[in-house]
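sorry for the late reply, my laptop died twice this morning and i had to redo everyting from scratch. anyway the thing you sent over, i finally got around to it. pasting the sequence first so we're on the same page, its 339 residues, then the predicted structure underneath. double check i copied it right bc i was rushing
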Amino acid sequence: MVERSRGLLGIPGDYRIAIMPGSDTGAMEAAMWSLLGARGVDVLAWDKFGQDWAADVVEQLEVADARVFRAPYGALPDLSQWTPDRDVVFTWTGTSAGTCVPDGDWIPPDREGLAICDATAAVFAVDLPWRNLDVATYSWQKVMGGEAQHGMLILGPRAVARLESFTPPRPVPKLFRLTRDGRLDEEIFRASTINTPSMLCVEDALASLRWIEDVGGLGAMIERARRNRAVLDAWIAQTDWVDHLPEDPATRAPTPVCMRLAGPFFGSLGPGELEAAAARIPALLEAEEAAYDVGAHETAPPGLRVWTGGMVETADLEALLPWLDWAFEEVRGAAARRA
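ok and here's the structure:
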């Protein structure tokens, strides 16, 4: 599992890879609890999960020298606010916003701090610049389409050096411990997991990796995601009741595509009516078994969220579009009848 993932993703040979309990969240928590506190920390937050990491750094880990740079849904904070002598924690793709960093060029190779990246919706959808990342985490369920129980933790040499030279000023729960007697616990990075993993979940993830190999590997997955989101982009461009949530095309993630409700009809609704209409569209689609889980994240503005990663077939997205139009017409028609 570990070496197959390394080969498919092009992860450098001197980076360690571990299977962690608790999905991407478990992997991120292990990294933050074990690594943060040696120097100042900047957190870049523009979606629900970035906000979670910010809350952990400030409220749970209580890092004394912490700064949080926030942006509303659909935007990015000014990445230049981070200074490379400090650690930085960020999501590559805000999965509840559909907003992603455009590249890794803003992370310099001569940085003194660690770049800690929640990459859960970027892996297998973006060609990640591994040497710009000291820590990266992801889960099996997002772009891989696997079960959600486990996460992957990837540590570069600079993160390993931090682990072996820094003792966190806090008790570290067993599930998050990455060292033993002051040294990296190499067993964890030889797939001797911290807890007993589900072999069914592992086999499911391996099946996903074999499928990715069969379709052509990372490059093919990136191209499939690009083609999939192009289907949504074209539909949004000709649809007058939705728009992209991220305003800048350069920061729109390959997956998911997050949309806000727009146009005259939704503009005429009050706040409560808008939320009700937004909830009604995915409910209608689920009732017809046409689509599932296409509503915006509960913390995001009212809208839609459609996954477009390489595991999704383009033909299925094309088949979805008339259903989206139908659901909108049903909602608009019901409102007109009430009036």
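The mean pLDDT is 94.
thats about all i looked at so far, will dig more tmrw
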